[in-house]
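Structure ticket #2291
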Amino acid sequence: MEQQSVDCENQAEIMARIHKKCCPTFWSKEEFESLLKNDYNHILIAYEGQEGDKVPAAFVLFQKLEGSEEAEILTLCTLPSFRRRGLATSLLKAIGVSKTILEVNENSLEAISIYEKMGFETINRRKEY
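Resolution: structure written out below.
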């Protein structure tokens, strides 16, 4: 997995494209652009492929206050053709905090499996999430 720096507009476009392929209710490029304007929101994008032919394969969008050891995952997506390669796990580890919170749909069994393997625990359940 490689991470590259890209400008805000390209980040939003990359995230919207991946999100649309991963989520039944997806966010638009404009929604991602709006989220990226907040100084507390950060993104990591994982690229896969051979040198000169790398493509964005996964990303994590998270909130983290400066100097904080806590982050909230807003969304984490891996393109279906790149799943089961450890990209999501690598992105979560790259956030580099001691405490991470997130919400996940109880029907997202693949996502829950990743989080459980990383030591996440259920602390609360929302009705009709």
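Closing remark: The CA atoms of residues 109 and 115 lie 10 Å apart.
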